[in-house]
UniProtKB/TrEMBL annotation:
Protein's recorded name: Predicted protein
Localization terms from the record: Nucleus
Leader sequence segment: none
Cellular compartments per GO CC: spliceosomal complex
Length: 267
């Protein structure tokens, strides 16, 4: 990807008014960044992190109104997560106040809520400065609301206000499955985010503030933690037993096939 192409794509994703070309530019950029560390690093050097954050910020307090706009926003977050793979881009993200922007998006509880959590997960993994910034800008309250399952946000399904009681009647099976998978991924991202906080903040007042969250409201977060631990432990045990049985049924499985089956099972 030559420099001119990169500059053109970055220019298009920063256009304030939505255009079809903006969606295509975001999609091309996401593809180019997906499996290329070289592109991720080079785009970071060209202020790509700032450009993508600028594109995301245009939708920080509102939901996309069309499927094309939803796709464009998803593409921008895919770009951002790819850019956050190299360590130097994590630093650029923090310096560009990306942590603050993601927290604002989470507080708005709009369409991009889950994408903001995913971006923070990428930014904070193995990068203590992002974890420290997260605590400093009052992100703990927002993160633990998600951890407790208390955060409600707009859901692109009909009759969302009655979704718990009417889901079986109003949401087609495919959409119900999609929603369940989305909520499961969201839960896993939040757990990963909090694990990164504990790994990245080892001492001092920030550590005290993090630990104090587990004391609030009669230790409800510890109860929630144990609930999640038991649920995921049971899943791992059941899948391990199933895989053991599959191996007995097919003794000719090589190590790669065994590994792939474990990945498919989430182990």
């Amino acid at each position: 990807m030559v420099n001119l192409d990169r500059v053109w794509l970055l220019t298009k994703i920063k256009v304030r008014e939505f255009e079809g070309i903006k969606k295509y530019a975001s999609e091309i950029l996401a593809i180019l960044l997906q499996n290329s560390t070289a592109n991720q690093k080079r785009l970071g050097q060209m202020n790509g992190v700032d450009a993508v954050l600028e594109g995301v910020a245009m939708n920080k307090s509102k939901d996309p109104k069309t499927p094309d706009k939803e796709e464009m926003l998803d593409n921008l977050f895919d770009c951002l997560c790819c850019l956050l793979m190299p360590l130097e881009n994590k630093e650029r993200f923090v310096n560009a106040e990306g942590v603050e922007l993601m927290i604002i998006i989470m507080k708005q509880k709009k369409y991009a809520y889950g994408s903001a959590i995913r971006a923070l997960d990428f930014a904070m993994t193995n990068y203590p400065p992002a974890c420290q910034s997260f605590v400093d800008v009052m992100g703990l309250k927002t993160a633990f609301a998600a951890f407790m399952g208390k955060a409600s946000f707009s859901i692109p399904f009909p009759l969302t206000i009655f979704i718990n009681s009417l889901v079986a009647y109003w949401i087609p099976l495919s959409k119900r499955i999609k929603r369940e998978r989305y909520e499961e991924e969201l839960e896993e991202r939040v757990i990963s985010l909090i694990a990164s906080l504990f790994a990245g903040i080892l001492r001092g007042s920030r550590r005290d503030r993090l630990l104090s969250k587990f004391v609030e409201n009669e230790f409800e977060k510890i109860d929630r933690l144990m609930e999640l631990y038991m649920r995921y432990s049971d899943r791992v045990r059941l899948e391990a037993e199933r895989l053991d049985q599959l191996e007995l049924d097919d003794l000719e499985l090589d190590e790669d096939e065994k590994y792939n089956r474990e990945l498919e099972s989430g182990l």
